[in-house]
Amino acid sequence: MPAFVPGKAKTKVGAISKLTYEGKATWIPTAFVDSFRAEVVLLHYAKQELNLLYGSNDNALRWDRWGYAHLSQLASERSKEAYVQWTPSTELWDDDGPRDKIQHMSEYLKDFRVLSDAGLSEGVKFGVSFMTLTVNAPEHIKYLYHRLQGQYGVRFSRQKLSCIESASDSPSTKIIFNCTGLASGTLPGVADPKCYPTRGQVLLVRAPHVKTNIMRHGADYETYVIPRPGSNGNVILGGYMQKGVGDGSTYASEAESILARTRALCPEVCQEEVEVLAAFAGLRPSREGGARVEREEILVGGRRRTLVHNYGAGGTGFQAGFGMAVESVALVKDILEETRRDVPQARL
């Protein structure tokens, strides 16, 4: 039984991984829609660590916890291969911060502690430190791709979809996983009006002396410094959170602002000369009310098909994507069990 998984790399590969690791699919082609170019950019610039900023609903809290456990295992067992590593992290807020989410995550974050008021910088009202998981996004996606292809025999194809129904290109396809990110706002058959872009811009710099994460969250800005694992000293400096802005261009004025803010936030950034390697802009696939993980029954050419939506993670694709994939696959457990005996198990 083929399952078709069109869409965004982070959630898409997560869904494929969950299917193949459970031995429930052997052929899972993937497709790319009109917004693919913008979403590839996200792989290069995205905030690649688990943080406390995004998503405070019950779903997001659950997905974050599963993501932390999953990335922890990768960091412990195959850190270099998967480009995931433990990194000390500090997060600061100009207000009281998302206390409910912080309380929830404090139950499992390694070495979590609340910073004393005396140690906070001017203008900062609250801060915490903990051990986070940082991910070299482009290399981690390559790792997942090659593991799925080489170890599990997953086949990937690139297609342009006219509608979500066209993902069911085989009579034997019973399940479509919709992981199309921002395209879910316009793709016929989905066209979710709750989808919107959140623009960001970052700098990729050479700064091997920077070894820790630090983030500061303000009312109208977000500043962060994130070392990139396995990159010989490259660091991500950011950033911006521009809700509803769909412009993928980069701007010199924003680059200057990022450099100024990160130097003020992290003295290590200006201790030695920092070489700016590139500027990236990308669009986070946001959604009002949070990410959508939901099952829907549709008809394609008179045949019943099951469509599982898995999109709208915003800036949390790497920390929530695994949990979203687990729940997406669980939604079709009945179909997978019905057809499991028809799936060749030898290759898995």
TrEMBL record:
GO biological process per UniProt: D-amino acid catabolic process
Pfam families, per the entry: DAO
Cofactor dependence: FAD
UniProt signal peptide: none
Binding locations of FAD: 180
Residues holding D-dopa: 217, 224, 284, 315
Cellular component per GO, a single term: cytoplasm
FAD dependent oxidoreductase domain span: 59-326
GO molecular function: D-amino-acid oxidase activity; FAD binding
SUPFAM superfamilies to which the protein is assigned, alphabetical: FAD-linked reductases, C-terminal domain, Nucleotide-binding domain
Similarity field: Belongs to the DAMOX/DASOX family.
Protein name from the UniProt record: D-aspartate oxidase
Naturally occurring in which organism (per UniProt): Neocucurbitaria cava
Higher taxonomy: Eukaryota, Fungi, Dikarya, Ascomycota, Pezizomycotina
